[in-house]
Amino acid sequence: MFGQIGIYLVETLFGFFVLLLLARFHFQWLRVPFRNPVGEFVLATTSWMVMPVRRVVPGLVGLDLATLLLAWVLQGLCLWAVAAMRGIDPAPLDVIARAALDLLRYSLYILVFAILVQVLFSWINPYAPMAPVFNAITAPFLRPLRRFIPPLGGVDLTPLVLLVIIQIILIVLANL
What we know:
This protein is mainly α. It is built from six helices and no strands. The radius of gyration is 18 Å and the shape is globular. The two termini are about 30 Å apart.
């Protein structure tokens, strides 16, 4: 019982920071402004980790590699800690590969969340102050689909199609 509680706490703590670091990485990659409550929260909770790593790891073509590397290392430490709590000695390459797959999976979860919130905003209040943030996150992924899928009866089905595509990718990742 205490082992399960410990594993849960480790996964929750590390998962929280990994998701925030990935959100920060994606905000910068997709050029989502940080001048909003979500962006300010992400910056406030991750800057203490990211700034020292940025001195050592430079960015590349507009990508914040320091943030991505930090998320990868934290996810790897989480996997290693959970394996150690279960009494397993994992191979380092397995931890590295699984951490990378987990980052991809978490990134897809962030996109799913953004799509769902963006769709809710479009139905309830498209002029909400946070709507542009979620539009900026989802637009690069919805734009290519909108070229091929026209609105039907004034309803945009591209978020639904994108959610189906993401779910297929998640199924493939689960079987790797």
